[in-house]
Amino acid sequence: MARPSCARPNPASHCVSYSSRMTESYPAPREDAPLVVFDFDHTLYDGDSGSHLFAWLIKRNPLRLLVALLASPILGPMAAMLPTRRRGVSGYVWIATFGLHRAREFNRFIDAYVLKHEAQIRQRLLPHALKVFTEHRAAGDRVVVATGAPPELARAILGFVAHQDVPVIGSLVGPRLGAVTARRHCHNEEKMRMLRERGYADIAIAYSDSTADLPLLKAARAPVVVNPKSNREALFRQVLPAGTPILNWGCRDRGGKAL
């Protein structure tokens, strides 16, 4: 199995200074360049960016907050389990966006949230993850972000570190029952379908923290697990090729080999 190296950026290396790349332009990837796919939450970003956005939307309105608290005994466990995660998350999204009728309105709230919380968001971007991300771009790789978060949110956050031009595939939202909810959740097998539809099929390297991304990691010639939950490390070792790196890129409450 092909493995990352400093010639093709190594997720554990320190051979390029991230800060030195901040103002540089990147070479346009060739059509035959290696395809590298990054998850976003707990991979580039320390936490769940979508949950942070929706929590803000809920907390800014007392009625939304009350409804969310009343619904949490049902929605919370659903959101925590893979088979029912989509429904649980959709319930919270519905509460957070009730009264919005267009994706355009929702995107304006994303812009307001990112602007208001810029300092906190910057602190959650993982420096080593951004370094690896930057190295891949500098090497001319085809870099794509595939996330369960709304793509506009991931793009806005990546814009803080001059990566706003990277293709982002994320959960698609639209009007439903008086709110804006996920119409297509970029998650698990659906993430792979959405990647393939955009022409991203032959994956050289994939980075993710989540067992929900096992279809993505298994599809990659060189999977890299980063910042996994400690109780999932054994599963990753069992189902992924021997020697698959399982690393910690700076999430203190997560597993993986420390840098």
UniProtKB/TrEMBL annotation:
Entry keyword annotation includes Hydrolase: yes
Keyword terms, alphabetized: Hydrolase, Magnesium, Metal-binding
GO molecular function: hydrolase activity; metal ion binding
Pfam families reported in the protein's UniProt record: HAD (PF12710)
Name assigned to this protein: Phosphoserine phosphatase
Protein source organism: Xanthomonas oryzae pv. oryzae (strain KACC10331 / KXO85)
Lineage: Bacteria, Pseudomonadati, Pseudomonadota, Gammaproteobacteria, Lysobacterales
Gene that this sequence comes from: SerB
